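Q: What does the assembly look like in three dimensions?
Context provided by user:
Components: two
Sequences:
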Amino acid sequence: MKTTSWFTLYKMLIQTSIRSRMQYKFNFIIASVLAALIQISEFLMVALVLHKFGAIKGWSLHEIGYLFAIMTLSKTLYRTFGNEVHHLEKYLVGGELDQLLTRPMPVLLALLPQNFRIMVGEVLQGGFILCWSLAGMMHSGQIGWTAIPFSLLVILTGAIILFSIGLATATLGFWTTRIEELQTITEDAARTAAQYPLTLYPKWMSGILLTVIPVGFVNYVPSLYLLRGELGAWVLIAVAAVAILSLAASLRFWKFGITKYQSTGS
Amino acid sequence: MLYFTLASKAYSRNLQYRGAHMVHNLASAMFGYMYACLWIGIGADHSLGEYGTQGMVSYIAFTQSSLWISGFLTNGLGIPLTVRTGQIALDLMRPVHLFTHLMAREWGQIAYQFVYKSIPIYLLFSIVFSLQWPSEASTLLFAALGLAGASYLSICMNYIIGATAMWTTESSWLHWGNHAMMNLLAGFFIPLEWLPDWLERIAWLSPYPFLLYVPTRIYLGYENGSLLWGTLLWCVLMTLICLAITQVLRRKVEVQGG
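A: Here is the predicted structure of the complete assembly.
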């Protein structure tokens, strides 16, 4: 099959997924609004502290808002397209992966559009905090307008890195079947940690967040250059390289893992 | 006796998943560790009032461990699921009051989470952060009372949230809303006195401070037991609301099952 045909097929599967989701419009709207509110309450928690004490280790509220927003938007992009990777356990435990294996297409391509998620709430919240923090820093002259296109690029590379971490964790499920608990560590806890400057943590922990689970490259490392002018422009190339390398490595691991798959279904 | 059996069954059902829960504890501990690091970072440049840096670390360690008995309860006490499957009709027919029945089961869950989640997480924090334990028995007693009250309040709140599933298919939004309120108003991450004035006042008009802030302050020795009157007042109020709601939902049962 040609690449273009794969793409058409993928588009069609996504459209079907969206149509099924839109059957419950009211639920969709309520869920989106609440998702945004809950996310904002999490940011407010830190914003209130910063309001009271000022900067944390030299990072201002705008800068921390930026870290927070980039992480949210990268995660949103990853989960919009790759939500089912995060929910692979359901397929492993219920044996639903068997059905996908019999389709005449790569498993990942069959898996991803199963449940295309439109995360309006997260986009609203992340978008709002990003605009607010960028505007704040531009106003004070800390950054120029070039930060905008670079930020969009960083969101994209961030999404690729988060997807790779998610895929690698999910792949471990071929051996362990249960992955939810592990995901809480590699995805949720790691992501939450990287919403704040990594200098807050002891060296061993920031080391892990930059190597084993490279969430630091999603927002923290690019921010060092974009917001604070530290390191140099090569940082952006390094971030892109990390994204490509993690994607390649996780795809390889997935391919290997799938050969070890044993159905658990009834 | 029936209630005890319900509770102990809920407790033992969880024992099957001890291994997975221990991995989850590690994640929960990581969250607490991260929040503590944030306060250590802030404490490096600012004085943290009566707490000081070590006090704030103790504060976070205690709230993070308490979350498992006053925050992370079964979503809506499981009512939304039983409404969806139609099981609720049978539950209402039982010769046991729905509220006390579900509550007994939840106490089993809480007891399990206390033993296998709160305690291990707190012990881990105690070692990592060299935390000091209260020296007076009365402090421990009052803190335990505060925590028990917090669990009870949380059971009631979850019951109310669950009961709304009888009328709406989207009770989960209330569940998440409740979580958001806990983040902000229960003093989970920020002690209430550091909130903006207006928000602090709103918080004290709600039951949220009694879920985490009050037991934590008592445990750390910043308060005597007098705030427990507030816990008691809210417990009584919530019980009345729960009983009233049960009356209403007994009258008209709508199940989505099929």
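Follow-up: Chain B is about 70% helix and 0% strand.
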